[in-house]
Records
---
Amino acid sequence: MPAPLLLDLTHTSHTRARTGIQRVVRSLRGALAGRALSVCFDPHESAWRPLEPWEERNLAAACAAGARGSRWPLRARITGRLRRLSGRASPLAPGSAGGVLVPEIFSPEVAAALPGLFAAAEGARVALFHDALALQYPEFTPRLNVARFPAYLQELLQFDGIAAVSEASRDCLLDYWRWLGATRLPQVVALPLGIDPAPAEDGATPPGGVPVVLCVGSIEGRKNHAALLDACETLWSAGAAFELRLVGLSNPETGAAALEKLRRLRASGRPVRHDGPVSDQALEAAYRQCAFTVYPSIAEGFGLPVAESLARGKPCLCRTEGALGEVARGGGCLSLGAAGPAEIASALGRLLASPSERSTLESEARGRRFKSWGDYATELLAWTGTLRRNA
C-alpha cells in the first residue's frame, strides 16, 4: 500500500466556520479517507503533527456563527508549549509520507513552516488554488487579505503542482506569475471541484404558496447582496409576491452595507429572512423548500452554491462569465448580466412571472451531472501521481 499523503488542515481543524473553502477541505478529507493523514502546524509546539482527537471533533462539528479565524483552546496552547520546552515535540518523521497536499489558503506562519512539512514526504507537493479575487477585487476584500495575497501567490511557487478549481482560476494564477516574471513554475491544471450528492428527495416540488427564492453564500462585499436586496425591494414595491431567504455567515467588514439594507427591509416588514450559517441538514431543507436560487456574486473561483443548486434540480440566477460561466454551461441557469440591481430585478421578475420558463430550467438542471467528491479525489490523486518532485 502506498504511503499516505500529508493533508494540511491547519486552519479548517481550528475553526467552526463553514464557508466555501472549509466545506471543500472537509469534503476532500472525507473522500481521501485512508489515503491521507490529516496534519496541522502547531505554532505552540513549533512542529507539524497529526491531528489530535479534539481537532478531529472540531472537523466533525456542525457549523457555528462567529469569526473565520483559528481558535486554539488554552489547554492546547499550554500542551504545545510544554512539549516544545521539554524537548518532547514529535515532528513528522522525514520521508515518511508519499506526498503533500495543501488545500487551504495558508497563513504566513504556515508558509514559513512548509519546509518541515515537505521534508516529511518523498513525493510531490501539491496545493489547491481557489482564486486571486483578493487582488482582482480589493474593494470587496478585507484589508488584511489584500495585503497578504501577493506573498501567498509567490509562496505557491515552491510546490510541484497546483490544482486550480476552475479554468478561470488557473489562467489568473499563470497570468500573475508571468507578470511577476517568475521563470520556474509548478505544473498547473484546472480540476473542477466535486459536490455533495443531492439526497433522494431533492427535486421534489416545493411547498405551495408564496415562492421562496434562496441565496446561499457569505454576506460580504463581493457576493453582491446589497444589489440583490435593492432588486428585491424594487420588485416588492411593484407588488411582486415572493420571500427571499439568505443562508450564510456575515462579514461585518465588507458586508456592512448589505447587512444594513437587510436590517431596514426586515424592520419595514418585507419578506426577507436571514438564517446565518446553518447545518448541512438545514441547508438541504432550504434547497427543497425554494422555487429557485439566486447567486448574485460578482466573481468566484468556482461557484459551489450554483453547482449544488443545479444538482438539486433548482434553477439558479447567476452571472455567466468566468468561473461561474464554467459551472453554468449545460443549462439550468439564467444570466444576471452585470449583476447590478436592475439586472437582478429583471431576471428575478422574469422567472417569478413565468412558471413555464422555471419548468424548462428545472428540466435542464435535473439533466446536469456533477462529479462527486470521490470522483474529484480520484482525479486529484491520479494527476498528483504524474508529477515529479522538483529540487
Note: The chain has two domains: 5-194+373-384, 212-366.
---
Amino acid sequence: MKKVYIISGGVTKFAKAHPEKDFRLMVKEAYDSALSNVPKLDRSMIDGSVVSYFSDHFTRQLMAGAMVNDFLGLCPKPSRRVEGGGATGGLCIQSAYEDVASGRMNVVAAVGFETMSRVNTWKGNEFIALASDTNFDYPVGGFYTGYYALMVTRHMHEFGTTPEQMACVSIKNHKNAMYNPFAQHPLELTIDDVRNAEMVSWPLTRLDCCTMSDGAAVCILADEETAFKVCDNPVLIKGVGTGTDCMRMADRPHGDVIRLPHENKDDYKDLKYPGVHSFRAGRSAAKLAYEHAGIADPVEDLDFIELHDAYTSSEIQTYEDLGLCRYGEGGSFAEKGYAFMDGIDYGIDLPEKCRIPVNPSGGLLASGHPVGATGIMQGVFAVWQLQGEIEKHFGNDKLQIEGAKRGLIHSHAGTGTYVAVTILEKV
C-alpha cells in the first residue's frame, strides 16, 4: 500500500447563505485556493475527484457531483460521490486516500459542499431528520436536536454532567472562531449567555447547537513521489478508521466496552455500554485509527483534535469515545479547561492547563456545518496547523499550536451511525 499525503487545502467562508453563488462556484473557489498553495502542481496532474455532499434535497439537483467535476475541468477523469450523513466529508477524504493508497491514482481532489440556505430552517431540519429511521423514529416526531437532547439527558443522569459544563464547550469554540476568518459564527460568550439563549430541546439551547450553512472545502491528496515533488511540507495520512452502528438506538446491543490501547478491562467493568450516552461507532473508528497510526495514548501522542461538535453535548461525548478521558468524565474535562487553547482569554475560570486543544478552528458550533464540506474543512485546518501556516491563512497566529506534529480529525453522522477518524502527521 502506498503512503498518502495531503499536499494542500482550500475552504470558502462558511456562511448562513451565499445567495450569489451556486454549489459549483463555491467548490471552484475552494479548489482554486488549494491549487494556489501548490503552484508546482499542474492541474493536468490531478487524476480524478471524490465529491462529498449530504443531500440532493438541499442542492435540488441530482448528479451534482458530476456537475462539480465538469466545473472543475476534470471531465472525463473519474469521479464519484460519497454520502454518509454528517460524516460525509470525513468519508470523502478516506475514499480519496484509498484511491491513492491502492495505486489507482497519484493525485486526487477530495471536494465537498452544501447549500443549506436554499430551504427554510424548518424544512432543513426535516431533511436532516430523514437521516434517522423513517419507519420508526421519524414518524413519531424524531428530529436531531431531540435525539441529542435525549442522549445528553441520559449522560447527565448516568454521570452527573451539567448544562454549565456543556456551555464551556460553546464558550471555547465560539471564542476560537473569533480568530478564524472563515468561521460563520464567532462570538464571545459567558455561561449565562449560553444558558439563557433560546431553548431548542432541553437542555440544548440555540448556542449549544451548530448552524445550517453554505460552504465548500477541498483537500488535494497525492502519493509520496508526487507529494515531495510539488510540495515543500506535505502532511502524511498516518492512520484511518471508520465505525458504524444501527440507525435506531433501540437496536444497538449492549456488550463490553471497546477498549483503546491505554485502557484496561477494569476501567469500565460496571458501565452499561454503549447505552445512549456514547457512540460505539466513534470508539470503533478511533481504535482502528490508533492502531493504524501507532497511537498509544491520544492525549500524549496527539497535539490537537478537530472533532464533530454538532452539539456541545456531542463534543463531550466524543472526548470519551476518543479516549481523551474515561467514560463519564467528559463534562469535567471541558469544565477544567483541558480542551481549551493556551494563550486565549475565554473569560471564564479554567482551573487546569490545556492537555489537548479540541476544535481550535471553532468547530461546527462556530465555524458552521455545511455538511458535505465540514469534514474536509477539518482536514484543511488540520493541514494548515501541521504546516505551521495558520497565520498565513487566518491573518493571525492565535490559533497556531506551536510545534504541532500530529492531529486527528473526526466526522460523525446521525446518532453515531457512521464515524470516520483520520490521523495526520507532519513529516
Note: The chain has a mean pLDDT of 96.
